[in-house]
Specification:
CATH architecture: Alpha-Beta Complex
Distance between the termini: 35 Å
CATH topology: DHBP synthase
Largest sheet: 6 strands, mixed
Radius of gyration: 15 Å
Length: 161
Amino acid sequence: MRRVYEIKGRDLTKPLLLLIPDVESLSPLVKRISIRARRLMEAFWPGPLTLVFQASESVPRVCLGGGNTVAVRLPNSSVALALLREVAAPVTASSANPSGGPQPTSAGVVASHLGNLVDLIVDGGPCEDDRPSTLVDVTGSQPVVLRPGRISEETLKPFLS
């Protein structure tokens, strides 16, 4: 995980999210899954929704950015899911670009940005949408949208109260 920070030039105080292969993989990573979080997961996972939970002790501290929460997403990419199932463990994820740079939309763009810094680039085809996942904090009594993304706040509204 430290290498991800190095390659991206990412500030160590910025946490890294974790991708999971299935909903069952979430429980060991988090302290609690609220009813509202479950409703969001049922509606939008797999998909472009990242949820922030209180991290369990099993989550490597380096990916928490000095905090006590962990961001988790169940992706809807068949390539990502196949990789996650093969690894059989959560995988840290971040956009494949230098920190603060534009979102890459193809393996070629990743190669031009990161080149020799990475060991492998998996080409799953071009990204159809360069917007990030929507980020929602589910640690409190009411979910809070921290970053708008592919899922609009309007679409999320029925699940937030």
